[in-house]
Amino acid sequence: MPKDFSRTSRLGEQIQREVAQMIQFEMKNPKLGMVTLNQVKVAKDLGYADIYFTVMGAKGETDAEIRATASKILNEAAGYLRSELAKILRTRVTPQLRFHYDESLERGHFLTGLIKQARSEDDARHKDDEQD
After folding, report:
1. Among 28-42, 84-98, 115-129, which is the least confidently predicted range?
2. Structurally, how many domains does the chain consist of?
3. What are the Cα distances from residue 47, in Å, to 10, 37, 77, 89?
Protein backbone atom coordinates (compact mmCIF):
# COMPACT_ATOMS: atom_id res chain seq x y z
CA MET A 1 0.00 0.00 0.00
CA PRO A 2 1.43 3.43 -0.87
CA LYS A 3 2.54 5.66 1.98
CA ASP A 4 0.46 8.54 0.64
CA PHE A 5 -2.76 6.89 1.70
CA SER A 6 -1.94 5.16 4.96
CA ARG A 7 -4.41 3.94 7.54
CA THR A 8 -3.81 6.94 9.78
CA SER A 9 -4.44 9.42 6.97
CA ARG A 10 -7.70 7.66 6.01
CA LEU A 11 -8.74 7.65 9.66
CA GLY A 12 -7.79 11.34 9.94
CA GLU A 13 -10.02 12.20 6.99
CA GLN A 14 -12.92 10.29 8.51
CA ILE A 15 -12.40 11.96 11.89
CA GLN A 16 -12.30 15.36 10.18
CA ARG A 17 -15.64 14.72 8.41
CA GLU A 18 -17.39 13.31 11.47
CA VAL A 19 -16.13 15.89 13.99
CA ALA A 20 -16.98 18.74 11.60
CA GLN A 21 -20.56 17.49 11.40
CA MET A 22 -20.77 17.06 15.17
CA ILE A 23 -19.49 20.60 15.77
CA GLN A 24 -21.92 22.02 13.24
CA PHE A 25 -25.06 20.13 14.20
CA GLU A 26 -24.67 18.91 17.80
CA MET A 27 -22.72 21.61 19.62
CA LYS A 28 -24.98 24.51 20.48
CA ASN A 29 -22.53 26.99 21.99
CA PRO A 30 -23.18 30.53 20.68
CA LYS A 31 -19.68 31.65 21.73
CA LEU A 32 -18.05 29.14 19.38
CA GLY A 33 -18.50 30.99 16.10
CA MET A 34 -18.05 29.36 12.72
CA VAL A 35 -15.38 26.64 12.94
CA THR A 36 -13.59 25.08 9.98
CA LEU A 37 -11.48 21.96 10.46
CA ASN A 38 -8.43 22.20 8.20
CA GLN A 39 -6.46 19.07 9.01
CA VAL A 40 -6.36 16.08 11.34
CA LYS A 41 -3.08 14.35 12.16
CA VAL A 42 -3.50 10.96 13.79
CA ALA A 43 -0.65 9.34 15.70
CA LYS A 44 0.51 5.98 14.34
CA ASP A 45 -0.54 4.21 17.54
CA LEU A 46 -3.97 5.94 17.38
CA GLY A 47 -3.36 7.41 20.83
CA TYR A 48 -4.30 10.94 19.84
CA ALA A 49 -5.49 13.05 16.94
CA ASP A 50 -4.37 16.67 16.56
CA ILE A 51 -7.16 18.68 14.93
CA TYR A 52 -6.24 22.01 13.37
CA PHE A 53 -9.04 24.54 13.00
CA THR A 54 -9.80 28.12 12.03
CA VAL A 55 -12.71 30.14 13.33
CA MET A 56 -14.73 33.20 12.48
CA GLY A 57 -16.20 34.78 15.57
CA ALA A 58 -18.57 37.55 16.50
CA LYS A 59 -17.91 41.18 15.70
CA GLY A 60 -16.35 43.26 18.41
CA GLU A 61 -13.95 40.57 19.58
CA THR A 62 -10.28 40.53 18.74
CA ASP A 63 -8.80 37.63 16.81
CA ALA A 64 -6.87 36.50 19.88
CA GLU A 65 -10.06 36.41 21.99
CA ILE A 66 -11.93 34.48 19.30
CA ARG A 67 -9.11 31.92 19.00
CA ALA A 68 -8.76 31.50 22.76
CA THR A 69 -12.50 31.08 23.28
CA ALA A 70 -12.89 28.57 20.44
CA SER A 71 -9.84 26.59 21.53
CA LYS A 72 -11.11 26.41 25.11
CA ILE A 73 -14.62 25.35 24.07
CA LEU A 74 -13.39 22.69 21.64
CA ASN A 75 -10.84 21.22 24.04
CA GLU A 76 -13.46 21.08 26.80
CA ALA A 77 -15.84 19.29 24.42
CA ALA A 78 -13.13 16.86 23.26
CA GLY A 79 -14.31 14.11 25.62
CA TYR A 80 -17.90 14.35 24.37
CA LEU A 81 -16.77 14.45 20.74
CA ARG A 82 -14.50 11.45 21.30
CA SER A 83 -17.29 9.39 22.87
CA GLU A 84 -19.62 10.21 19.97
CA LEU A 85 -16.84 9.45 17.51
CA ALA A 86 -16.27 6.05 19.16
CA LYS A 87 -19.85 5.11 18.26
CA ILE A 88 -19.16 5.85 14.57
CA LEU A 89 -15.60 4.62 14.01
CA ARG A 90 -14.86 0.97 13.54
CA THR A 91 -11.57 0.97 15.39
CA ARG A 92 -10.57 -0.76 18.57
CA VAL A 93 -9.10 2.48 19.92
CA THR A 94 -10.56 5.95 19.50
CA PRO A 95 -7.86 8.62 19.62
CA GLN A 96 -7.93 11.42 22.15
CA LEU A 97 -8.81 14.68 20.41
CA ARG A 98 -6.57 17.73 20.78
CA PHE A 99 -7.63 20.97 19.10
CA HIS A 100 -5.11 23.54 17.87
CA TYR A 101 -5.69 26.84 16.11
CA ASP A 102 -4.26 26.66 12.57
CA GLU A 103 -2.03 29.67 11.99
CA SER A 104 -0.92 28.62 8.49
CA LEU A 105 -3.50 30.83 6.75
CA GLU A 106 -2.42 33.91 8.67
CA ARG A 107 1.25 33.13 8.00
CA GLY A 108 0.42 32.70 4.31
CA HIS A 109 -1.29 36.10 4.16
CA PHE A 110 1.63 37.70 5.99
CA LEU A 111 4.18 36.17 3.63
CA THR A 112 2.12 37.16 0.59
CA GLY A 113 2.07 40.74 1.88
CA LEU A 114 5.84 40.70 2.33
CA ILE A 115 6.34 39.39 -1.20
CA LYS A 116 4.04 42.06 -2.66
CA GLN A 117 5.88 44.75 -0.69
CA ALA A 118 9.27 43.51 -1.86
CA ARG A 119 8.11 43.37 -5.49
CA SER A 120 6.69 46.90 -5.37
CA GLU A 121 9.92 48.22 -3.83
CA ASP A 122 11.93 46.35 -6.46
CA ASP A 123 9.75 47.76 -9.26
CA ALA A 124 10.19 51.27 -7.84
CA ARG A 125 13.99 50.85 -7.84
CA HIS A 126 13.99 49.62 -11.44
CA LYS A 127 11.88 52.61 -12.55
CA ASP A 128 14.42 54.94 -10.89
CA ASP A 129 17.27 53.14 -12.71
CA GLU A 130 15.52 53.51 -16.09
CA GLN A 131 15.01 57.26 -15.57
CA ASP A 132 18.75 57.90 -15.01
Report:
1. 115-129
2. 2
3. 15, 20, 18, 14
